[in-house]
Structure formats: C-alpha cells, structure tokens
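Quick start: what a row looks like.
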Amino acid sequence: MRLDALLREAWRNLASGTTRGVWWAAVLAVVLGSATVFDAVTVSSIGRSAQMFQDRGGSVLIVESIGAIDGAQCEALASLERVRGAVALRQSAEPLRLAALPSSPPALYEATPGFARFFTTHPSDEGAGIWLSGQLEQSVGELAGSSLIDPSTKVQYAGYFDYPDDGRSMSLAYTAVIEVPATGLFDECWVDVWPQRDDLASLATFAVRTPLDAPPEVRIRQLNTSMGESLDQELELANRVTRLLPLFSTVIAGLVGVVAVRLRRLEIASALHVGVRIRDLAGQLMLECISWAVPAGALALAAAFLIARPLEGGDAVFVWLSAGFTVATGATAVMVGIFGGLASIRSKRFFQFFLDR
C-alpha cells in the first residue's frame, strides 16, 4: 500500500474515533507526565539543596594554623580540579579606625587577592581599598553625617561583601577586610570546592608551612555545618528513589500500545482475512500511534521544562535529559507494544473475535 493511501486510512480512523487517539493520548500523557514530573521534582529538590549548601558556605573548608599558612600556596589551591576559589586570611594587630565608630573599632583582616573572587562583593565608586562586611556596613551606614573611613588610615572604602547569618562561623560577620599581596604567612586558608572531593583536606594542608623542628598545630573545619558535613549531589542523583520511574513508565507505555491494538482485534483480523498485508497494517497503526504519542510526549516535556526553569544550568540539563530519556523510551515502548499487539492477532481467529464481540 502506498504512503498516501496509508495516510488517508489513518486519517479516517482518527477522524471517526476508531483510533481513540484523544483517549490514548491522555492515558500516555498521564503515564509519561507522572514519571517525568515526579523525577523532575526530585532532581529539582536535590539541586536546590545542593545550591543552598553552597550558598551557605557548606562547600568551604578552612585550614587554620596561626602564623603558618603560606599565602601563595593557599591561593595556588584554586588551580586544583573542582576548586572554585581559595583565599588566605590573617587578623591585623591593629583594628580598623572608623570615623563613624571611634569607640568600638572592628577587627581588621588582611586577605590575599583571591578574596574578591571568593565572596559576593558590592564595590563602591572609589575602587580598591577596605571591604566591610554587610553587617558592619549597615551599622556604619546608619550613622549619617560622618565620613565612613577615618582619613588617618589613608585607604579608601572599596565596598562591602555578603556574610549572612545562616549558621556559618561568624568570624567575619562584623569585620573589615583589606587585600594584601599573597606573600608571607597567614592564619587561615579558605578553600571553596564543588563538587566536593574526599582528598581536599589532605591537599589543603600543603598550604601550611611546616618547620622540621616545631610542626605547627593545624585545625581543619567546615565554614558552615548547619546542613551537614558533606553533600554528594552526584551520589544523591544516582540513588534517588525516582530513578526507576522511566523503567516503570516504559513498561506501562508498552502495555498501552498492546491494549490499543487488542481493542481493535476484530477490525484488524477482518482486514487480514480479506487480504490486507500485515506490513501495511503495521504502517497504518504506526502513523495512528504517532498522532497521539507525540502530543503526549510534548506535554510531558513541557512539564519538565516548567520545573527545570528555576534551576541552575547543570541541574536543568539533567532534568531535560532525564525527561527526554523517559519520553523517548516510553514512545519506543508504545511502538513496540503496537507491533507486538498486531503480531498476536491472526486472521483465522476472525470469526472467534466476531462471536466474542
């Protein structure tokens, strides 16, 4: 049978309702959409937890060794795989003199140039100089009518950096920071790594300068432990409960294809009985299946798209790939079910099907 003849026959069956296209499209949309949405929601939840873990400083490891952190070696850790930033810090012996707070000067920290890349900063118009924590900047800013930085310090106000009260160590919550060259020794080395790696703690200790005669005391801690000591997003995605939903939806989609054909066994057996070739019937049924499987898959992908929109790049791509895999395997299973159902129908059972009706 020619393609145009197959298209006409498939169209007649769709228009007359013989195919039950709307009904089967709704069933398949529910099957694929449920699997896609539940998995996308789970992936989205894992992604949000991972992002919150990073935003709150859970991915930051602090190596503390008073007066023994090599600034250059600490900053060099930023070149390691997965390390997004590294900065060495030390507290200045003298506090910062602020004209707005003459009686209670805040602590002043010196940081290597990686500081501005490490924190979310809000620069001022003056350019380089002293950075104030958000809390300190807010307090100083409320005292109108006075200069921000004491002129005797001979430095400018560079801006402020975010340091929220979200469970993290509050060592920099009410402080000022000034960038200095990465030379000499510091007290702490902050390393931000994502995804996390098990060997980071041992690698980070390379920033500690260790004399042979008197090894310094080294303390390793996490900036924020309120969300746990570690979070392996890749492992959580691999072990998520909904990872098996594509398999279940594929099986159900295959059964949908079989049932869609078996409900028309009398019609199909009759066509075979009068001499219609089975390959022509397969082509016709395939065209009819495409007419209702494609809209169902499109609805499932649209639902995944809406859920993935707020996510970051990598998580959104993961949702899309997972949804695409679910829809592709489901559509393939439907087609296999269609052909399997067709293969189970024999023309010699035409009269039996007629009597069973």
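That is the whole record. The longest strand covers residues 60-70. The chain is about 50% helix and 15% strand.
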